[in-house]
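Before the break, one more example. Copy the sequence into your notebook; we will annotate it together after we see the structure.
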Amino acid sequence: MKKVFLSLLAASFLAIGTNEVNAQARYRTALGLGIDLGDGPTLVGPQIKHFFDGANAGNAQVLFGDDVTVLGVDYSYNQAIAGTNGLNWYVGVGPQLAFIDGGRWWYDDRDDDRTYFALRPAAGLEFKIPSAPLAFHFDWKPWWNLSNRSNFEPARFTLGFKFTLN
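Here is what the structure looks like once it is written out:
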């Protein structure tokens, strides 16, 4: 009897955990448009977000602006907000490379080709429309440049509009 009870208890926890994972992710992969704005240049480009499981996701983007291309990847930890349908909060961090093509970067007065390496922490909200394959996000994503005259720019934000695939 004890083995049957423990087996049923383990199966119950597994089922609850699976339902919680599915409720948090709400989708597996999404493609969309990212807009990086704030103090400095506005950057726009494609992005992809993929959930590895219910809470852990990766996001990759290529952003374009005047004389700059930014490649970035991020890890984020995502959780549903209790009592809401489709609203999640997330925190994360990721490396970014900015390739400057003969123009000036917003905190560097040099006018030549450069590559910048930065870390970008993020904290934000994402809303997945329950009845449609659409998701939106808004986050605070400061730019912490670690190369070529190190700099920290706290007034950076991103907006994202995504089409969810599954």
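The first helix runs from residue 2 to 25. The first strand starts at residue 29 and ends at 38. Try to locate both features in your own notes.
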